[in-house]
Amino acid sequence: MTNTRVAVVGGGIGGLCLAQGLHGAGIDVTVHERDRTPADRLQGYRVHIDPDGSRALRDCLPPELWEAFLATSSRDAQDFRFLSHRMRPLLTLESPPVTDPVDAHHSVSRITLRQILLSGLEDPSGVVRFGKTFESYTRDPGDPGGPVTLRFADGTTETADIVVAADGGNSRVRRQYLPHARRVDTGIVTIAGKFPLTGATRPLVDPGLYEAVNMVVPPRGLGMFVAPHDLTGDGNTGNTPLPPGIGRTEQEGALFDNTGGYVMWAFGAATGRFPDDLATMDGERLRDTVARMTEGWHPDLRTLVTASDPGTVSLLPIRTSVPIGPWPATNITLLGDAIHSMTPMRGVGANVALRDARSLHRALTGALTGGGDPVAAIAAYEAEMRGYGFAAVRASLKAAHQFVDENPVTRAGMRTFLRAAGRVSALRRRAAS
């Protein structure tokens, strides 16, 4: 349909979703991924897919892969609860009933989602090329729409007509293309783990901890988020045949189990509240650190931590991009964390990347298959993306600071507001936003 060559640098969620859409539209697209194999960068936690993300996956994936996504995810129809650290209810936001899966919230293993996004793009199609660490690009400075030559660490090069940076928060493409776009440390650290959901473990904790998403609001300086990934619920019937390569991973250990249910917990605080040697701790010591810092909390919350396999416990420093103003559009563009990396506190980072992929897919496909100007299409995409992308960055950073607020008066005020929202509809709407 077109002779235009599109090169995507980075094979994360957003880059692969875009590649699926472009490949399905008959556009010549390649993905250059630094990992040497698909198993080199497995991320063992769940990812929340909201309606924006669901819409992107449905529109960019072929029907059989959309069905595979639905078959391997659980429907996030749970309520969202705010609790004190002693499990006293502050506010419950009830989840409305949804019939169309595109309008639903889903929970999916990051490992399984990557398997789905890679399906059909590896051999023999050759769309995804592993072991390609991007180093730099060159192009004629007088021709902002001319061919771009990508250089890789293995000494090879690739020439493309359009380049999409999808290489994450530490994007090398962004550093060269938009050197003033910065990513900074927030001074917040989280420790995350997985509490397995089995017949033996469910009775150990209150059912609300695996039947709803829970935000724990302690007195000050600390925060905890609890989200179930329960594969026994709606959306994971086990009756849908899956394409080859989608299913249980061959990697060993509880962290990489992508077929069992669990509750993911994340405990956060400002860096100064943790021991100085936090960065050197293994999973067992990280787990024990959280256990010590939650003394006096409700026993069920502490059980989520102490009964987690230490192999599933990880340290996650929190960083964020700094929003920037518009830049002139060219045939190089960016999506996802490469341009608007955000904290995980509102759970929208992956969904914004998927929204980018859908928007850019539609813009490029329309231009390349309809005789339009691809740079003009990129300009329209970037104008839209900057609006919703940097708004999400600001909102997630605000939520991160609230998550670990050190002011006891502010934290007490938050709890008072949440209780009041349970009685006043206007406040409830504000809390839900």
What does this entry look like structurally?
α1 runs parallel beside α10 (349-370) and α2 packs parallel to α10 (349-370). The chain has one domain: 3-Layer(bba) Sandwich (FAD/NAD(P)-binding domain), CATH 3.50.50. A hairpin with a 4-residue loop joins β5 and β6. Helices cover 34% and strands 23% of the residues. The two termini are 43 Å apart. The protein has a 7-stranded mixed β-sheet, with helices on both faces. The chain has a 5-stranded parallel β-sheet with strand order 8-2-1-12-18. A 3-stranded antiparallel β-sheet has the order 3-7-4. With 433 residues, it is an alpha/beta fold.
Q: How many strands?
A: 18
- Amount of beta strand: 15-25%
Assigned CATH superfamily: FAD/NAD(P)-binding domain
* Sheet with most strands: strand arrangement: 6-5-14-15-16-13-17
**Rg:** 22 Å
What is CATH's topology name? FAD/NAD(P)-binding domain
Q: Summarize the biggest pleated sheet.
A: 7 strands, mixed
Unreliable parts = 233-237
Helix proportion of residues, in percent? 25-40%
Number of domains: 1
N-to-C terminal Cα separation, in Å? 43 Å
Bulk shape: globular
Class based on secondary structure composition and strand pairing: alpha/beta
**Mean pLDDT metric:** 91
Supply the CATH class. Answer: Alpha Beta
The name of the CATH architecture is 3-Layer(bba) Sandwich
Number of contiguous helices: 13
